From TrEMBL:
<feature type="compositionally biased region" description="Basic and acidic residues">
    <location>
        <begin position="286"/>
        <end position="314"/>
    </location>
</feature>
<feature type="region of interest" description="Disordered">
    <location>
        <begin position="265"/>
        <end position="314"/>
    </location>
</feature>
<dbReference type="InterPro" id="IPR003607">
    <property type="entry name" value="HD/PDEase_dom"/>
</dbReference>
<dbReference type="InterPro" id="IPR037522">
    <property type="entry name" value="HD_GYP_dom"/>
</dbReference>
<feature type="compositionally biased region" description="Low complexity">
    <location>
        <begin position="266"/>
        <end position="285"/>
    </location>
</feature>
<feature type="compositionally biased region" description="Basic and acidic residues">
    <location>
        <begin position="1"/>
        <end position="20"/>
    </location>
</feature>
<dbReference type="InterPro" id="IPR009926">
    <property type="entry name" value="T3SS_YcgR_PilZN"/>
</dbReference>
<keyword id="KW-0973">c-di-GMP</keyword>
<keyword id="KW-0975">Bacterial flagellum</keyword>
<feature type="domain" description="HD-GYP">
    <location>
        <begin position="357"/>
        <end position="555"/>
    </location>
</feature>
<dbReference type="GO" id="GO:0035438">
    <property type="term" value="F:cyclic-di-GMP binding"/>
</dbReference>
<feature type="region of interest" description="Disordered">
    <location>
        <begin position="1"/>
        <end position="22"/>
    </location>
</feature>
<dbReference type="GO" id="GO:0008081">
    <property type="term" value="F:phosphoric diester hydrolase activity"/>
</dbReference>
<dbReference type="Pfam" id="PF13487">
    <property type="entry name" value="HD_5"/>
</dbReference>
<keyword id="KW-0547">Nucleotide-binding</keyword>
<dbReference type="InterPro" id="IPR012349">
    <property type="entry name" value="Split_barrel_FMN-bd"/>
</dbReference>
<dbReference type="Pfam" id="PF07317">
    <property type="entry name" value="PilZN"/>
</dbReference>
């Protein structure tokens, strides 16, 4: 995958070795990976040419514009001489099952910060990225009980009753608890010593991993290692999965991701800020066969009502996070050529619809706050929310109160860019202008999305329209089909305006978004390409100072709009900075018109000018 490069040396002769994983050569791709190392405080293992010793450092800053990163002091400290002399070195790092490495790089400068040396290093020509998912072991917290049963024996005639037998019938040889899990296997703790009664490499054709909510995965395993803790009187079995088909492999990967998220959620101390996985929640009371039959026969309308009732228990931030995760998972499945779990998008659409109806402004606020490296996923969620929000605002349209249509519209927005998962990363991540050839490849993403969605059962027509028509333009200059004016559906025209608006106002890792007021001005100037009634409707409903935008007051105070009045003018603003003094302010939420200093908003402002980010709206004060 990519070009070969010299990585090992033997008796003074260079040997070429093909790098593992992906070779990342775009500036944006390299920036994104280095930024991950900085944000996660991940140690780097350094290896200098012609020096046998290993050294350690960390990335402390990354500069995209000038193409360099800063390394913290090197340990052991005598590595400082090697770095100061610009001796070429390579590095590798590991985080969450990912290996990031580079070679043939060297420092171009040295400085002292807080009494310790730091080093300026130009971006490497390439970074090697390998998702070592088969080696990453997701831990299971001690309070989470995931049962594992080895050697499960269920007679064929009772297979239909297994949902009940799994919790009642002791038809297995060993039972234990899962302690960690990877794509290839896991550790199972079983009470008592098994070192004499269970041989290594014993194979169990039928093993069940049973989750607290009652779901289970059935697979085969081989016991590769057996350890015994005399104090705890527990045997630890190192198990390897056997004969995993693609569907089971996908399930295991999903569980590893959920365990990783669960571990981070509990380790952060902010468990309430992220929704727990349904896998790890206690099972609801079991239903008899009659109840199950009735449930299967419910109408679609009744099912949707129950889904909405369930979603109402989620907080708005969790609904937004789960929607972002759904899009990210679907794009990942496309990139990995895995089966598409489109149900994730439907579940996210239900969650977002309820949040939009109950906490509209709060949900829009979360769509306006972006994370580095998440643009594609967060953009899709934002487009989905704005499509439904604008439709609900259009009271003259009978579909503005049609829950099923609104749900379909949100689904359409979530999925409208899925085809980009099949576009090469060198094109998706390119920071400079695309060549004609690259542009043709990029423009295929709309048709790819339509093709992907058309193969999914139950895909509504509006999703197919949004997938392609969000890229069409009134004058025929759009793609993929060059439709003009009346040939573009009303929802397609609205989707085009929203897609352009969101893309303009939200930055990438390599550039900042433009202020909302400037975006509105540009939208209005594109009257030959974008539908002006849809543009005017967007401005009227979102307000000329939308939620998440930066505004100024007459006294020089700057703040981000947190909420709007019924007439879409700023209501509550979070003060963050004063441009007259050039100093940050203690975070404070004020009501516009509540005092002489904040009688009314004076003007829109550009956050990039003051190096401000609207994620300050999430800080507790």
């Amino acid at each position: 995958m990519g070009t070969t490069e010299t990585e090992t040396r033997n008796n003074g002769k260079e040997q070429e070795k093909k790098p593992e994983g992906q070779v990342i050569s775009t500036r944006e791709g390299i920036y994104r990976l280095l930024k991950r190392l900085e944000n996660k405080h991940t140690p780097l293992k350094l290896n200098f040419d012609a020096v046998a010793d290993k050294y350690t450092s960390m990335v402390i800053a990354v500069n995209y514009k000038e193409g360099y990163f800063l390394l913290d002091e090197v340990t052991p400290r005598w590595g400082d001489d090697l770095m100061a002399k610009a001796i070429p070195f390579s590095f590798e790092s590991f985080h969450d099952g990912c290996r990031i490495s580079a070679s043939l790089i060297q420092a171009s400068g040295r400085a002292v910060k807080d009494g310790a040396p730091v080093y300026k290093v130009p971006f490497p020509k390439n970074l090697h990225f390998l998702q070592r998912r088969q080696f990453y072991r997701a831990p299971v917290r001690m309070s989470l009980e995931i049962k594992v049963r080895l050697g499960v024996k269920v007679p064929p005639e009772k297979r239909d009753e297994y949902d009940n037998l799994i919790h009642q019938d002791p038809t297995w040889e060993y039972e234990g608890l899962l302690r960690d899990l990877s794509a290839q296997g896991g550790q199972v703790d079983v009470e008592g010593s098994l070192q004499e009664t269970l041989e290594k490499n014993t194979q169990f054709d039928c093993c069940h991993i049973i989750f607290p909510n009652g779901d289970f995965i059935e697979l085969g395993i081989i016991v590769r290692h057996i350890g015994y803790d005399e104090k705890k009187k527990v045997s630890s079995l190192g198990c390897q999965f056997t004969n995993l088909d693609p569907k089971k492999d996908q399930k295991i990967s999903f569980v590893v991701t959920e365990l990783q998220r669960d571990h981070a959620r509990n380790a952060s101390g902010n468990a309430s800020n992220a929704a727990p996985s349904e896998l790890f929640e206690p099972a609801a009371p079991s239903k008899d066969k009659k109840d199950k039959k009735k449930e299967a026969e419910r109408s679609k309308e009744e099912a949707n009502k129950e889904e909405k009732a369930k979603v109402e228990q989620l907080d708005t931030r969790s609904a937004h996070q789960l929607a972002v995760k759904a899009v990210r998972t679907l794009v990942g499945q496309l990139r990995n050529k895995e089966a598409l779990d489109i149900q994730l998008a439907w579940e996210a659409a239900n969650q977002l619809l309820v949040s939009l109806e109950k906490q509209r402004q709060e949900l829009i606020l979360y769509t306006r706050i972006r994370s580095t490296g998440q643009y594609l996923f967060e953009h899709s969620v934002s487009v989905a929310v704005l499509l439904a929000d604008q439709m609900m605002f259009d009271k003259a349209n009978p579909k503005s109160k049609d829950d099923e249509f609104l749900r379909n519209l949100i689904f359409a927005g979530l999925c409208h860019d899925l085809g980009k998962g099949l576009i090469p990363e060198r094109i998706i991540g390119k920071t400079s202008g695309l060549t004609d050839k690259e542009a043709k490849v990029m423009h295929k993403h709309s048709l790819l999305t339509r093709e992907i969605l058309s193969r999914q059962p139950g895909t509504p027509e509006v999703a197919l329209q949004v997938a392609t028509q969000n890229c069409e333009r009134l004058d025929g200059s759009g793609h993929p089909e060059g439709l003009k004016g009346i040939s573009i559906s009303p929802v397609g025209k609205l989707a085009a305006v929203i897609d352009v608006f969101d893309a303009m106002t939200n930055g990438r890792s390599y550039r900042a978004g433009i202020p909302h007021a400037l975006a509105f001005k540009r939208l209005l100037s594109m009257n030959n390409q974008l539908d002006q009634p849809a543009t005017q409707q967007l401005i009227k409903h979102q307000g000329i100072f939308p939620i998440g935008s930066l505004v100024s007051f007459a006294n020089g105070d700057l703040g981000f709009v947190k909420s709007l009045t019924a007439t879409a003018s700023p209501d509550q603003v979070r003060l963050v900075f004063n441009k007259n003094s050039g100093r940050p302010l203690a975070l404070q939420d004020i009501q516009v018109g509540s005092g002489s200093n904040w009688t009314k908003v004076a003007a829109p402002e550009d956050p990039a000018k003051y190096k401000l980010n609207n994620d300050l709206l999430l800080h507790e004060i």
